[in-house]
Structures are given as structure tokens and as C-alpha cells.
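TL;DR need C-alpha cells for one chain.
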Amino acid sequence: MQCTKCSSGYYSTLFHSSCVLPSECDEGTWAHSNGADLFCDECQNDTWALENRSECVHTIEACDEGTYANNTTLQCTRCSPNFATLNHRSCVTRENCSLGEYGDIRSYQCKKCEPNFFALPDHSNCVLSKNCPVATYANTTVFQCINCSKEVFALPEHDKCVDSKDCPPGFIGSKIIQQCRRCDENTFADKNRTICASHDHCSDGTYANLTLHDCVQCLEIQLATYDHSECVKECPEGQAPDYIKRQCYHKEPSQNLA
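>> reply
TL;DR here they are.
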């Protein structure tokens, strides 16, 4: 049998069975040029062939984007439609990229978010903290939008989760969306930030602040009017003070004795 020299630009495969383009060298081999001698050469242990077979790399982190270091074939193997982990050790679904990473669909690679950005819960993108989804907060340790635990609520700026009473003025802790939600027009957040209601539902000693949409505590020397519309030093005519509760109450009409 006659050995035939490969045409220019073509490489002899590992067992000299055919001539191929460099990128067509077998897995775990690379296109080796030794002067005029062109052949697909095996990668040594603890090295991996790049996808285009241009070389064998000595660290798995040097594998191509979207590939992982396959220790069986000594090849940087493409993960698509899944995503290569940041360290190129394995392939994962996008949702399983590590905290603070997103799955880049152009390269099928898990990548770290840029500074001051946070990975969405599904790792589809990175956003500013204020753009984290409802019921999540921006964790500055792992740079990830993290779901709030039960019974606490995400602040409007998503910088942390708080008890309902710690929601901002005019907001309540909504159990439906697990988020501090702004009260609608003409309603006011109660003292514990659990409901939005009309002004007459404000707690004793508080008045309905039209700017904040919040039931605001009166000063120590003041009392809230019966309709909670304002704080006063003396109750209006027809109202009686309760100085302990700091609240004016409607006077019952006096009855004449027969």
C-alpha cells in the first residue's frame, strides 16, 4: 500500500487513514505542523484540544467559551444547548449557572455579572438592584436577586427584605406579591403597614397624611381628630379627648333626666 502525501493545508489523521482540515482532526488531537509535515497529534494527559484543534491547552479555564474539559476524550466539548460553567468543568442548564452569573446565549457560557449588577433568579440576565423582580432583593455578597423568605417583603428598591412594619411610609407588605406595595390614591397605610384603608381606619393617635399616603403618629402633645384628618392640641367641639390613646372621640349626646 502506497502512502500518499496530504494536499496543502490538510493534515494526516492520527492513524494516517485520511487527510482532513485542521478543525476535522479527531477529538483529543490537534493540528500539528512540523515543517512540511502536517498531522493530527494526540493531546498529552491533563491537556485538552481546543474546538478548532489549533492547540492543546494546559488549563481547563483555557477551553473555548461554551465548552467544557472532557477528561474522557481530552477535548474541549461544546455544551449547547446547555451552558458551560465558568470554570469549564461541566455543562449545566442556564438556571443552574452559579450565583452572580448569567447564561450568555451567544456563547452558551455562564459568565459573571458586571460590578454592581445582579443575576436574575433564572440567570437570564444581570440587572441593577432596583430592577430585581418582585419579591426578591439584591444580595451584595453573591450579586444575585434572591427570593425573600416567607413573612418578609422586598423593599421598593430591592435592597433588602423587611417586616411589613418596616415598609416605607405609604406602603404595605403585600402577601400576594411579597413586596412592599404603595397604597392607592385616597387610601393610607396603617401603623403596622398591613392594610391600605380610608383615613377613618387609621389607628388611634394617628392622622392620614395626604402626601405620604400613611397614617402618621401625632406628636406627644397632640391628639388625632375623630376622623383622623389632622392632629390638634385640643379636640374640636363635639369631640372628647382620650389622652392615653391621644385620640379625640365623638361625644355621645347628653340625655336630659326626666
